[in-house]
Design brief:
Blueprint (H helix, E strand, L loop, with lengths): L1 E4 L2 E4 L12 H5 L8 E4 L3 E6 L4 E6 L4 E8 L6 E9 L3 E9 L5 E6 L6 E8 L6 E6 L3 E4 L9 E4 L2 E3 L7 E2 L1 E5 L6 E6 L6 E9 L2 E15 L4 E3 L3 E6 L2 H15 L9 E4 L9 H14 L7 E4 L4 E2 L10 E5 L9 H10 L3 E6 L3 E2 L23 E2 L3 E3 L5 H17 L4 E4 L34 H16 L4 E4 L7 H4 L7 E3 L8 H4 L1 H8 L9 E3 L11 H14 L3 E3 L8 H8 L10 E2 L10 E6 L6 E7 L6 E6 H4 L7 E5 L4 E6 L2 E6 L4 E8 L5 E5 L10 E7 L4 E8 L5 E6 L9 E6 L1 H5 L3 E7 L2 E7 L4 E9 L1
Parallel strand pairs: 22-23, 22-34, 23-26, 26-30, 30-31, 31-32, 32-33
Antiparallel strand pairs: 1-2, 3-4, 4-5, 5-6, 6-12, 7-8, 8-9, 9-10, 10-20, 10-21, 11-19, 12-19, 13-14, 13-16, 15-18, 16-17, 17-21, 18-19, 24-25, 27-29, 28-29, 35-36, 36-37, 37-42, 38-41, 39-40, 39-42, 43-46, 44-45, 45-50, 46-49, 47-50, 48-49
Helix pairs in contact: 5-6
């Protein structure tokens, strides 16, 4: 769609776009008299023809002109090379293209940014205020020297052929699944608009189109409006590009994530959602799970006042329902949780109300309106609160202040977030849908939908204080809540509600895998709870717990804890705490969800690697994995330990071959084979040493393998050690703990069968134990 703007033909899209644009094809048809401007840095060469409104980009490392033909927002422009200073990334080079009506496009190369950035400025040279619903400032044809039909498109809507991509919110990757090289494009900012990226086939190549939806962006006569910033770049491994894009956003918004909690949510177990059972579960968790890393109890829907009006939950969050499940009130519930040494958390819907609830009878002005002046309703979310209206803002401020500072909750689960943008619910939303952003009318017309939404989250943050952990829930209700929350929440549910059945369990991995690069950089990905209850198959419980643990996702459970059998409770224990690392899916561009993940810890020597294998199908699965493609360190041989089977895997050369039963997983700790004893795995945690082993040392002169481990009181802790049989056999002679550990009652015993050594430590108190094994 196109529109005339100040005499300039623009694609209706947001100019906050960034393009790393290679002008090869486009420049070819330019007249010899037309000036071609070029800027370069260590990564890219960007060429621009201002008159034609075209550009191209070359990757200098690969010598690939990966954007042979790109289009800017207009034509007949005047260009110049300039030095730009960005408040986040510093001084860099840019080409500025200025058009007759006053609009400006900038293509920038900035320090330590592996992208070409594009930002535009819209100018109103007329005498009347102009309004933009959306903009399409540029497109870029991608050439990876491979047929487009062999490429894939990965975005928030999932993995697809480039010509079948329905549109991705915020980011999109076009990659060759075999080599992983490709182009990563995405919006770095979402301050006023909701960014989208599309792909389509253009003859034999893939074309990327940028779009930004404002709803209502008003520009007064003589005024300017900067668009959002778009980034595009070429990467030998597109996963690294996706991660770099997320890192850039983290820098722009100065994101510093709070410590990642591990806890409990009442939502998926009705029996647990009341005052009595919550207290019992809190005591149980404090006693049985807190020593392993558990620290949060979160109360979900059901505590609040209101009628709901027949459209979703009750939506008056000023106080508790005295006839509801928490008759003593929410402060008493929080106090009880804190008394057990745990963090109290609570659910509410900050931007939602019910216009026909008696509570809101005299406050109809708090709501966003439709064009005909009626309250703006949306399915389940109710009536959207107007975050540009002073009265609505003061109402929300009072709720947040009470919950955080009077009741004492320091973890918020804020649901129905999309209602803050005053858009329709289109659950489950992941690929682009035009749901009518801009139809709603705000009290302040100068605020766009996304501005109002972000202002609402900022209000929550300010009223709650920086000490409160904020989980957003959930982006798929309407993905306008996705990019608009960048830099404002600590965690985000990136998928829909899950469940304890096999179909429900797959929802989290499906949506979280495609957004893996956001985790630990922009926020913590929340896939919804894990399940270990007895009506969940044992292999399914192990799989979902393993997946959440290895992926590093937000880890919550929703069980009647005290009723869990010991073996099911033990599975939960092995998921705690979160490892705090940034794992990577190996087959991201081949399978959805990914079947293979690599978790690497290089924070200390030796490096530790865990390969997680998942079978999401209902048939046995043969896996053949190259150690090089997986990202494991080079070695003539590797050896592994299977966590759930509790078995050593014989040494293998170059290729790992295994067979997974249907709907199951295999979690392998893998190390290069050595010619002396070394620690391969531990029993404490699914990551097999990453969260518990604080030191490992081999002393050749005394033939001692020593180390230290964090162990939990009363929990048998097993060290799994390889004692090679070649070129000479090693035998464990003694196993000891430090003098202080021994005096405090810590015991250790060792057994060996050929090359397999198991040393078991038992401590009466949770502590860090120093251990050593002597070999001959």
């Amino acid at each position: 769609m196109r529109q005339r703007f100040n005499g300039l033909l623009m694609r209706t899209e947001s100019c906050a776009a960034v393009a790393f644009i290679v002008l090869a094809g486009c420049i070819a048809f330019a007249a010899n008299t037309e000036e071609i401007m070029i800027i370069k840095n260590d990564l890219f060469s960007v060429s621009v023809n201002a008159d034609k409104g075209s550009f191209s980009v070359q990757s200098l490392s690969s010598k690939k002109e990966f954007i042979p033909c790109g289009r800017l927002s207009g034509t007949n422009g005047t260009g110049r090379s300039i030095v730009v200073s960005d408040k986040t990334f510093g001084k860099g080079k840019a080409i500025e293209v200025r058009y007759a009506g006053g609009n400006v496009d900038k293509l920038m190369l900035l320090p330590d940014v592996p992208f070409v950035l594009l930002r535009s400025t819209l100018h109103n040279s007329g005498t009347n205020t102009i309004q933009h619903r959306n903009l399409r400032p540029f497109n870029a044809t991608i050439d990876l020297n491979i047929a487009a039909v062999k490429l894939c498109a990965l975005g928030t809507g999932g993995l697809s052929a480039p010509g079948k991509n329905q549109g991705s919110y915020a980011w999109l990757t076009i990659a060759d699944p075999l080599t992983r090289n490709g182009v990563v494009a995405g919006w770095l900012t979402h301050d006023r608009g909701s960014g989208v990226v599309f792909s389509k086939l253009d003859k034999k190549l893939v074309r990327i189109d940028s779009q930004i939806d404002y709803g209502r962006l008003l520009i007064a006569p003589g005024k300017d409006a900067d668009t959002e910033t778009f980034a595009i770049g070429y990467f030998d491994d597109s996963r690294l590009g996706m991660e770099a894009w997320a890192d850039a956003i983290a820098k722009i918004y100065s994101i510093k994530l709070k410590p990642q909690p591990v806890g409990y949510c009442t939502w998926y177990h009705a029996q647990a959602s009341n005052e009595k059972e919550l207290a019992a579960s809190t005591r149980f968790a404090a006693s049985k799970l807190a020593p392993f890393g558990f620290n949060l109890m979160q109360i979900d829907d059901g505590w609040q006042l209101g009628t709901g009006g027949g459209n979703g939950p009750k939506k008056v969050f000023t106080d508790h329902d005295p006839k509801g499940p928490y008759p003593r009130g929410m402060k008493a519930a929080a106090d009880n949780i804190k008394a057990e040494g745990l963090t109290p958390g609570i659910w509410f819907m900050p931007f939602a109300g019910t216009h026909n609830d008696p509570f809101f009878k005299d406050h109809q002005d708090w709501f966003v309106k439709t064009a005909d002046g009626k309250p703006y309703d949306t399915a389940w979310g109710g009536t959207c609160m107007d975050m540009t209206h002073p009265g609505a803002r003061e109402y929300l401020h009072s709720i947040v202040k009470r919950i955080a500072h009077e009741w004492g909750y320091t973890y918020f689960k804020i649901d129905g977030m999309w209602t803050g943008s005053a858009t329709k619910q289109i659950y489950v939303n992941s690929g682009y849908k035009d749901e009518g952003i801009g139809d709603a009318v705000f009290a302040n017309p100068d605020k766009t939908n996304i501005e109002a939404y972000r202002d609402g989250i900022k209000l929550i943050r300010k009223a709650a204080g920086n000490g409160v952990f904020i989980l957003g829930c959930c982006a798929p209700q309407n993905m306008r809540s996705f990019g608009g929350a960048f830099g404002l929440v600590d965690a985000m549910r990136v998928g829909p509600d899950n469940g304890p059945d096999w179909g429900g369990l797959q929802a989290g991995p499906l949506f979280t895998t495609r957004n893996y690069h956001l985790h630990g950089r922009i926020w913590y990905n929340d896939p919804d709870p894990v399940y270990v209850r007895t009506d969940t198959q044992l292999e399914h419980a192990k799989l979902i717990c393993s997946w959440v643990t290895i992926s590093g996702s937000l880890n919550l459970s929703s069980e009647l804890m005290g009723a869990l059998p010991a073996d099911r409770l033990d599975i939960l224990k092995r998921t705690m705490p979160s490892h705090g690392l940034l794992p990577r899916p190996v087959d991201l561009f081949e399978n959805e969800p990914a079947r293979i993940w690599l978790l690497t810890d290089e924070r200390q020597t030796p490096r530790r690697d865990v390969i997680a294998l998942y079978n999401w199908t209902s048939a046995p699965l043969d896996i053949e994995l190259s150690t090089a493609r997986a990202g494991l360190p080079e070695s003539a041989e590797h050896v592994a330990f299977d966590f759930w089977a509790k078995t050593f895997i014989p040494p293998f050369k170059g290729i790992l071959r295994t067979k997974l039963a249907k709907e199951s997983c295999q979690i392998l700790s893998i190390r290069p084979m050595l010619d002396r004893p070394f620690l391969l795995s531990t029993s404490r945690h699914i990551t097999q040493g990453i969260v518990d082993v604080t030191n490992e040392k081999w002393t050749p002169s005394t033939k001692l393998l020593s180390g230290s481990s964090k162990v939990v009181a009363g929990d048998d802790y097993e060290l799994r050690i390889v004692a090679p049989m070649k070129p000479r056999p090693w035998k464990a002679v003694t196993a000891k703990v430090s003098t202080k550990d021994k005096a405090d009652g810590v015991q250790i015993k060792v057994v060996q069968e050929r090359s397999e050594v198991r040393a078991t430590i038992l401590s009466p108190k949770s502590r860090e134990v120093e251990w050593k094994l002597e070999f001959e």
